[in-house]
UniProtKB/TrEMBL annotation:
UniProt lineage: Bacteria, Bacillati, Bacillota, Bacilli, Bacillales
Segment forming the signal sequence: 1-22
PROSITE patterns cross-referenced by the UniProt entry: SLH
Keywords, alphabetical: Signal
Domain of life: Bacteria
Record domain SLH: where: 340-397, 398-461, 465-522
Entry protein name: SLH domain-containing protein
Biased composition (Pro residues): 120-130
Amino acid sequence: MKKSIAALIMVLLLSTFWQALATASETVWFTDVSASADASSKQATVTGKVASGAGQLVTLKVVEPGGQFFLDSVKSGDGGVFTFKWNISAEGKYEVHIGAENSSTPYKTSFTYGLAPSPTGAPTPTPAPSAGPGLGSGGSGAAASQAPSPSPANIVRVTEDKLTFNEVLKEATFNLETGAEAHIPAALLEKLAQSGTGLNLESEQFTLKLSVQTLRDLLDQVSKAGGGEVAVSVNKVAAADMKSLLELAKQRNYAELKPGSDLYEFEMKLITSGGAETAISAFDHPLTLLLKANGLVAAKLAGIYYISDAGELEYFGSMSAKGWLSGKMSHFSKYTVLEYRKTFTDVPAGNWAYDAVTEMAAKHIVEGISLKEFAPARKVTRAEFAALLVRALGLSGGSASFTDVPAGKWYADEVAAAYQAGIVQGLGEASFKPERTISREEMAAMLVRAWSVLQPQAQPESAAPPVFKDQAAISVWARDAAGKAAGLGLMKGRGASAFVPQGTATRAEAAQAIANLLNAGN
């Protein structure tokens, strides 16, 4: 009996010992792990949960069939969920090693691509090999290989070592070709934003500039989502689809449209740590887009345009320098370079104002009174000319206290912006007379002030002796402006050297004056 009791005690003691030993050596760090490959997208996915919950650094090391390593890391999301996705090409077995903070033994699994169906792996007790460069230290997805490794087919990871920095401009540039999707980790967004450095995604045909403020906005969205990364892709729209959209646009705008580049579709999305994707299509702070023209379009008529699926056009910018066009955009979609040749039946080719009206219509500074008519002889009001100058110079904001410019009027914002820039002044105390027809001497004064805004470093010289035979008829306050406007080529006289200072200005003359302003010095 005593021997039986002693034996039972020994069994219980050994059982307790082995259970404690197993618990100590087999801490469960990961659950619900799945590793697989999708042949249609040529993409591998590893998902799972880390026991320590959200906000934990999870590292990934993949040994590819050829012996190369792929390294990446993410922060776990709600419930400890994590997801890794990357593109693959080589057929064979992929060994997967997953690590976590405070875990000395990585979770190991594997999957097969191309040779057999991809199984969901199970942990193996075999000790893991060395993690390799970057694993467990917050690596950002760069491939570390023992031999040259093929780059992913369409997903590229933006890492600090792949950036080119311009310390003077405070910009970092990453090369992004069409058809690729750039993944920008939250850690890099934060580092760039904190250092006041913007991010450029560029190719030989386009440059997309993300300002520091935009990076902060994106980082805020990633933080609210519990971690993750931002993905940006640029794809060319098929030529046949582009042709169909341009046909719709021609019909809607009654204009001849000539493509000056491919049609690109820009997309951005937020990918959470758990793998959920949310499209980001609008921005609180505009992004700068530069597109390279193909050289087959007239520079003065070329612009960057957004094209909707219904053929609607939205103008975003014009030629900046050396064949590149620049514009600010507040939303993503399809963009291209177009030569926009809008013709009006009452301003035919050969009309003295044809070139100016066509150019200003292409820049969307002037518009017709209908799809086909411009009304070149119609008089222009002070508010209308102020609005033209504001559009031409791209001004916005400001305030003015004119009692005859109520906030509800269409020109209220334009007059305020022109006043803020010093282009317009009142007539008497707190009065602007917005709907009064503008005189030629008033137009000259506004043009010279606008020229100074456009070229703040330059100083126009006054015309020294009077150049107009009706010089004495020019109001004293306007004589200097009239002389400068003539000297700069902003305005010309009417007829035989007469300025006609009190004469009213027409829509055709206004278009010509704005064209002269924008082309001054070119």
